[in-house]
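Q: Structure tokens for this one, please.
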Amino acid sequence: MINNAKLKNCLKLSSKITVYVPATCGVDTATDNTEQVKRVASALSEYFGGATSTPALGYWLSPAAGLVAEATTVVFAYASDADLQAHVGDVVDLCEALKNEMHQEAVALEINGEMYFI
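A: Here is the predicted structure, written as tokens:
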């Protein structure tokens, strides 16, 4: 824990929520995920006050296709514990919608360093 008098009066956001937005439709058909990234960033900003996105290259093992590499966009936000509790269901619903819309086996959701496959 950081103990610094200058931080005492600062707003502390101790939870981190990350949605991994696929860049494929189905297992391996590349697609433009710009609209999905905007939707996730907008939702996280509404729930938690802001969001950040960054490109990443993700790998996962598909039972149907073996090792799959795909460009992914990581969208994350920091939140108070109370805001996380208030909106975690909304974030899970958002991931479910992405999963269905993009025909994914799962969408990854990371909360405070723990990964959930929705």
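A few notes: The mean pLDDT is 92. The two ends are 32 Å apart (CA to CA).
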